[in-house]
Amino acid sequence: GCEDIEAEVEEVANGKKSKTGMLLYGPPGNGKTQFIKHLSRKHSLPIYVVYLNPEYNNYDIARMFASIPRRCLVLMEDFDNYFDGRECLMKNDQVKFTFDAFINALDGIHNDYRQVIFAMTANDITKIDESLTKRPSRFKFVREFGPPSDNVRRKILKDEEKIEKTRGLSLDQVFSSLSE
What we know:
The protein has helices at residues 3-13, 32-42, 58-66, 99-106, 130-133, 150-157, 160-165, 171-177, and strands at 19-25, 47-49, 72-76, 83-84, 87-88, 116-122, 141-144. By secondary structure, it is an alpha/beta fold. The protein folds into 2 domains: 3-146, P-loop containing nucleotide triphosphate hydrolases (Rossmann fold), CATH 3.40.50; 147-180, no CATH class. The strands form 2 sheets. It has a 5-stranded parallel sheet, with helices on one face. It has a two-stranded antiparallel sheet with strand order 4-5. Helix 3 runs parallel beside helix 4 (99-106).
């Protein structure tokens, strides 16, 4: 369950804590982004999406993070498509920003992040540098979103035969089986 994340997000949204972070990982289609959207709706938090454009330089990264408003949810999707460890994966010789510039911006060098929730998603956790996975000050919660359990599928499908047929499938695939 994610009750601990929900409780922490509520504290930040209500101003009892200044910021928190979650890194959600697992195969595509298992609810990472849906969970983030749920938190946004539940706490009326606007989503501020961070895209890492290869044209950005270190100053652009700093400026983007400095402009993050108070009381919002910052979404960085599919981070494993941008970096493998600290190595940039963007196929552009013109990439002008560094991993360190990203880390410094995330740490609040240019912004004190009042009531900000950082949410990063990845499919492959092994590509995410330990400076993100092992530092609770950056991402307090590092949580796997795997294929749904039998209980979750049972609640969705309510049909024992379909429950057996969907074992090991992603959440999206389980939902699409409803129309079959």
